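Final report, closing paragraph on structural work. Over the funding period we assembled a curated collection of sequence-structure pairs, and we close with a single example.
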Amino acid sequence: MRLTFIGGGNMAAALIGGLVAKGFPPATIKVVEIAAEARARLAAASKVACFEGAAGAAPFGDVVVLAVKPQQLREAARALAPHLAGELVLSIAAGIRLASLQRWLGGYARLARCMPNTPALIGAGVTGLYARPEAGADGRAQAQAILEAVGEVIWVEAEAQLDPVTAVSASGPAYVFYFIEALERAARELGFDEAAARRLAIGTFRGAAELAARSPEAPGTLRERVTSKGGTTERALATMAADRVADHIVRAVRAANDRARELGDELDRDQ
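Its predicted structure, as stored:
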């Protein structure tokens, strides 16, 4: 599979690094990036060919990955359009719907769109992925292979489902960091220094998440196994239940989903 990335920022670098680590030859990857410093960094780190403009990188190969900022996508798509020749175009630009992208590409329909999250930067991401029917089975397989280089892939059957993907997994790392911050604060208030409090909080979260990932049991069952009747965990969870912590988390995720939909509407109007 031959790839061309339009944009060479952090997510593109993560994908390229993951692909190369999984055995994709650097010679099969091109990058179009207007910033000379970013081109030099990518060429040095991953040994890929870098170009200042789309015309110089054509022909693009099998898949074109649009990895520019949403505000830059219209201009990038219009520069790309004259050089497309049947490639799958995979967008990782947040909020830009495929109808807009298709319009900027002059009606080109072999499109897919995804929503990754920041743990992709360390190969531990989870990405929601949607493809237009015109992408075909081979296009779906190619998109999945690219994104699995940096973690898991969850297919959605409708593009609108990428809004809840945004709310749950793309915004989700911030929720996790928020919880870690609170756990660390509690540890410090109970007498631990900053370094020890951070180790306790992060180690507990990392270990529990890994246990949940490896266990065939549901998180609720695992929670029950930790909760002895009359014990410390039961007391803590009773306090959280009284404060309706779970309900507030669900409400927050719903708010993020609403905002993702609003941002998509705003970007459609602006473009």
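The domain at 172-259 is CATH 1.10.3730.10 (ProC C-terminal domain-like fold). The first helix runs from residue 10 to 21. We thank the funder for supporting this effort.
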